[in-house]
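Sharing a chain and its predicted structure for anyone who wants a worked example. Both blocks are below, sequence first, tokens second.
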Amino acid sequence: MKLIFTAFLFFFSLFSYSQDKQTTNIKKGKWNAKLQLNSTHNLPFNIVVKKNRVHIINGEETILLDLTTLKDDSLHAHFPYFDSELVFKSTKESLSGYFYNYAKGEGYKIPFTAKRGNLSRFSNVKKKGKSALIDGRWKVLFQPNTTFQYPALGLFKQKGNTVSGTFLTETGDYRYLDGNVTTDSLMLSCFDGSHAFLFKAKIIGDSLYGHFLSGNHFESEWSATKNPNYELVSPEEITYLKEGRKVEFGLRKLNGDSLMFPNKDYKNKVVIIQIMGTWCPNCLDESKYYKELYDQYHSQGLEIIAVSYENGKSFDDYVRNVTRLKTKLDLEFTFLIGGSASKGLASKHFNMLNEVVSFPTSIFIGRDGEVKRVHTGFNGPGTGDYYLQYKQKTSSLLESLLKD
């Protein structure tokens, strides 16, 4: 019997060793990857493998995927903040599989491949000829000449034939875009586990005429003209408190208990109400920033209540999503469950506002219980000076309110 048990341990250790070898069977170095959005468009992105860990690169952003595991003969690399993953098989020179975004449903997947190499993000870019100059600010219109058109501000930085930057919209930014430019074309992409953005445009003089794809579910035309003075509507002028109304609501905490606001726990406190969702990259950027604010100002009287609107089929699904983000970011402020990811539902809960037009939306309340600011959307670190200026402005507001 002892001999049989020893043999079992030996073969089990061999099996475990074999699994470990397969689990980490991704050759280190740089990889050129792509998502096949449809039959004619591929979204390129860059991967760096270090010590068997997968890093996704978008311009200045590096995303470290959770530890790759082996399941059903495929490697699973989970995005750290979103309910999504890459599932693939690996050889020494190639990866092939799918990107799954479970926030969009169990059946949402996009084919994914990668090859080892150190090429431009858009590897088909030809370096012959002088690249067009697109550095600077651009007045942008998405879905032009339709009832759904919306404005944006393009901010681009160029070095040779490489370009980085983002688009600011009135409800948030498109985060870290990275790409290339030729004599007559601009190509940009972003892949962060939620966004899968591809932008292509023809350059004609000081104008861009382009095509935008978001995953395999949305396409739009867009156009732009160079304009160094263009600005969007202020994010503090879009959503507002209705005259004579107070911020009042009752929703459930993660443990299922109800929380009514306002209540005695928030009396004489400065409060930020964050209307958000864990599936939302702009909300992620804002939550990281709010962690900084909470750590700095909580002892002085700042409270933050995040009301989350989630993808899923049940309250337990919503809690699971929020708990993942809360744990990953080590967020100590209060989270409430709003319900399904619906701006209509959020507008119903916060009917003291004219409308909730964006996730995130934040309400800043002073010690006197009065609303001091309502901020729509969030321009995160990918927007450079806009992000820094917003941080400075918000810190000044909070310090003023905390002194009252």
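Comments welcome. Residues 5-23 have pLDDT under 50 and may be disordered.
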